[in-house]
Write a structure and sequence with these properties.
With 448 residues, the chain is of the alpha+beta class. Strand 4 and strand 5 form a beta hairpin. The longest helix has 18 residues.
């Protein structure tokens, strides 16, 4: 699929949801305006005609105040990472990646905590369960500090620095990541009640109430069983109940993997002796390109709203080691510019000459962070100072280094290395959807 085809498919999905939920014409176009190729501002669309009878208020696309995040499209907001300073990301600054308008109890009564329940079933379990919200709160829970990152975070680097113009997707820049304290019931607790069979092959987290009813993600049981206490059902974020935009009342939490695996507005968990194929592991959130062979489904696999010919590449799983400094990237070649980005197209951020403390963030979700290096104008790599805390593989760390900044234009690069010795590479292979780009970023700065 080319960029136009992907954009058309995304618009069609969102428009279909809005039509089914009787949202006004203006709101429909506001949502449809977001596409992976970028689109015209929604404000250019015509208003709905005046009706003799007062219409119901148009549905809000997102629910939280989005004044502290970057508007990259109707249902998506990126973090203003150049303003990040805290170790825990405030919810107000946390990115939002939705495929459709945020569902709320007003549209979906089953999302009211008084009504919510999750069905746990499948031939990989000894018994079926139905767990209500109050039941969940009474179960053994854990808290964990963990980053969550969208698969598309860093997609901008494909366009701006790797010259891969055919990559499609939203322009997240580098802000589709944050660290939160999550409270959740681990899957080990669920399996203790449902009874896990030894031949269980895959688990599917499924929403069933999000948009077109096609949102969910599977996991191989080998991965689940490698850390059943670190994956579960989250109900609090930063010590407060989840907000609607972040999956209230309950979402999956798959630490270390891309955010799409942590299915929001969870209503179903299915464990089976076969694999699952859904939209988000066939024609979205996958590595699609010549370096990524397409997986082959097996007889008896379960397909939901997709077919074998929809499989475009392997599913993205673990997020890679990554780093950035808190300086906005120069956007010059990207197909779109976020509407409230602090720089104009092609503009460089400016910094005063003299002694400067440069700050940033780095993380290695699979193995934990070992070190961060930086270099200026292609010079030697030097090690940055990692600031505590550095609490292990699921968290990030802040780092800093001193720079006597001379006047002129400069390029700063950062490179993180995890505890397995894996470092950020100079480049990564092309993939159509711009997934999991962790190439060494280049920050162009003008010092005055």
């Amino acid at each position: 699929m080319n960029r136009t085809d992907v954009a058309r498919a995304e618009r069609a999905l969102i428009e279909n949801v809005l039509k089914r939920e009787d949202v006004g014409r203006r709101r429909m176009f506001e949502v449809a305006a977001w596409s992976v190729a970028g689109a015209a501002a929604a404000s250019t669309m015509p208003s709905a005609p005046v009706l003799a009878q007062a219409a119901a208020p148009a549905r809000r696309i997102l629910q939280k105040d989005d004044s502290r995040v970057l508007n990259i499209g109707a249902t998506v907001r990126s973090g203003n990472y150049w303003d990040f300073s805290t170790w825990i990301t405030p919810v107000e600054e946390f990115y939002v990646r939705n495929h459709y308008p945020t569902p709320t109890p007003e549209q979906k009564p089953e999302l009211d905590p008084r009504n919510w329940k999750v069905k746990v079933h499948g031939n990989g379990l000894e018994r079926e369960l139905e767990i209500g919200y109050e039941d969940l709160l009474k179960m053994r829970s854990r808290t964990i500090f963990a980053t969550m990152e969208c698969h598309g975070n860093g997609r901008t680097v494909f366009w701006e620095q790797l010259d891969m113009k055919d990559v499609t997707g939203g322009n997240w820049v580098l802000g589709a990541v944050g660290l939160a304290e999550w409270e959740y019931v681990p899957l080990s607790e669920i399996f203790a009640r449902a009874g896990l069979k030894p031949d269980a092959k895959a688990l599917l987290f499924w929403s069933g109430v999000d948009g077109a009813g096609d949102i969910g993600r599977p996991m191989p049981m080998r991965e689940v069983l490698s850390r059943p206490d670190d994956i579960g059902l989250a109900f609090r974020m930063n010590a407060n109940p989840l907000l609607p935009d972040h999956g209230a009342p309950v979402r999956a939490l798959v630490t270390g993997w891309g955010g799409a695996a942590s299915t929001k507005w969870l209503t179903e968990i299915k464990v089976a002796t076969h694999d699952f194929w859904v939209r988000l592991n066939t024609k979205a959130e996958v590595f699609a390109g010549p370096d990524y062979p397409k997986p082959t489904p097996a007889a008896g696999d379960e397909f939901r709203n997709v077919a074998p010919e929809d499989i475009h590449g392997p599913m993205v799983e673990w997020m890679p080691v990554k780093s950035f400094i808190t300086v906005p990237l120069v956007i010059d070649k990207s197909p779109s510019l976020p509407s409230n980005y602090p720089l104009k197209r092609g503009e460089l951020p400016t910094l005063a000459s003299g002694r400067q403390t440069m700050r940033g963030y780095a993380w290695g979700p699979q193995h934990g962070l070992r070190k961060v290096e930086y270099r200026i104008d292609g010079g030697p790599w030097r090690e940055a100072h990692i600031r505590p805390p550095n609490l292990g593989r699921y968290t990030w760390s802040r780092f800093d280094f001193e720079w006597d900044a001379p006047a002129g234009e400069h390029v700063i690069e950062t490179r993180a290395t995890d505890n397995a010795g894996i470092s950020q590479p100079p480049t990564v292979p092309f993939n159509l959807y711009g997934m999991a780009n962790n190439a060494i970023p280049k920050f162009r700065i003008r010092v005055v």
